[in-house]
Design goal:
This protein is mainly α and about 325 residues long. Helices cover about 55% and strands about 5% of the residues.
Length: about 325
């Protein structure tokens, strides 16, 4: 017992000596300071750099007062406009399993079911939050069905929140304003969907979507440029399995049409569909008007009419 106690005392003494040595300069025995900005440990007296490239365990941002520190501090998951409470509340998982992945007993399952129910009730405390929850669910459903990216969903959620805050909902359905928000967000992001495509995934009629869209854009002062026919080309070409050469040729046809003013007053979807069909023929790739009509959801008559107009605008290509 005495020997082991002596060895322990010796080890503690050696450790203390090492720690005290690490706090002094090995050259002049001066005191050391840590420079967090440069990641170095230096001697205050002689300036010797004892240690460099130390790991900075603090945040990557700087703050100069408490307010700025609170604003920059990031704790927890990022907020998102795609959830009615911006993702700040707690969710109870729908799976009846514990933290280790084991199934819960019958008594615990009943308890979790009650907790889920009360959690949902507390998350939507008033009618405005219930409205927002339903609308954002609709936006997410429609965006998923249309294959729209996350930034479009986020923009659509922001548009709907603005409409709700500015009291534009009375007299209009939640589904109608949600659909109009998705339609506007897709056009703003440069990945537009036609009104017919939007109507297919919506729960409201086409006329109501168009009317609500015009109202929301006007009241909120949204800057929505007219849809560019070229923005539809990649999606149509991809659905038809056409090559990059055909896609490039379709863009060229549309650019020529713009220079000639042929696109004015014409449906951008019809022009894009006709350009894709014409480009496929010009590059000797197999496709039919019926196939293009199905992909673009536009009539074959429209495709034929726009097709001739595009070829006429192409000065060096005679009309077939």
């Amino acid at each position: 017992m005495t020997d082991s106690h002596t060895r322990t005392r010796q080890q503690e003494t050696e450790q203390t000596e090492e720690e005290s040595e690490s706090l002094v300069c090995p050259e002049c025995s001066g005191s050391l300071v840590v420079d967090d900005e440069h990641g170095e440990t230096i001697c205050q007296d002689c300036g010797l750099v004892v240690e460099e490239d130390s790991v900075d365990r603090g945040p990557e941002w700087r703050a100069f007062d408490s307010k700025e520190k609170d604003e920059k501090s990031r704790v927890g998951a990022p907020t998102t406009n795609m959830m009615h409470d911006k993702g700040l509340s707690t969710n109870i998982d729908w799976r009846d399993k514990d933290a280790y992945g084991n199934a819960l007993g019958a008594k615990q399952r009943k308890k979790m079911q009650r907790l889920r129910k009360w959690n949902e009730r507390f998350r939507t405390r008033d009618s405005k939050e219930r409205n927002l929850k339903q609308a954002l669910g609709e936006i997410d459903r429609m965006a998923s069905a249309l294959g729209l990216p996350e930034n479009v969903r986020e923009t659509a959620s922001v548009i709907y929140r603005r409409a709700l805050d500015e009291n534009l909902l009375p007299g209009r359905s939640i589904e109608g304003v949600s659909t109009a928000s998705v339609y506007a967000a897709a056009r703003q992001a440069g990945v537009p969907r036609s009104l017919d495509e939007i109507t297919e995934v919506s729960r409201v009629e086409k006329s109501e979507i168009a009317r609500t869209y015009r109202y929301v854009v006007r009241e909120l002062g949204l800057e929505v440029k007219p849809a560019d026919p070229e923005s539809y080309v990649p999606r149509f070409a991809s659905s038809l399995g056409l090559s990059e050469e055909a896609e490039r040729r379709a863009r060229q046809l549309l650019q020529n049409a713009k220079e000639q003013g042929v696109h004015s007053g014409k449906s951008p979807v019809g022009l894009a569909a006709a350009a894709v069909y014409a480009a496929a023929l010009l590059t000797n790739e197999k496709t039919t008007q019926a196939a293009v009509s199905e992909v673009a959801d536009i009539s074959e008559v429209t495709i034929r009419n726009r097709y001739h107009e595009l070829l006429e605008a192409e000065q060096d290509i005679p009309v077939a």
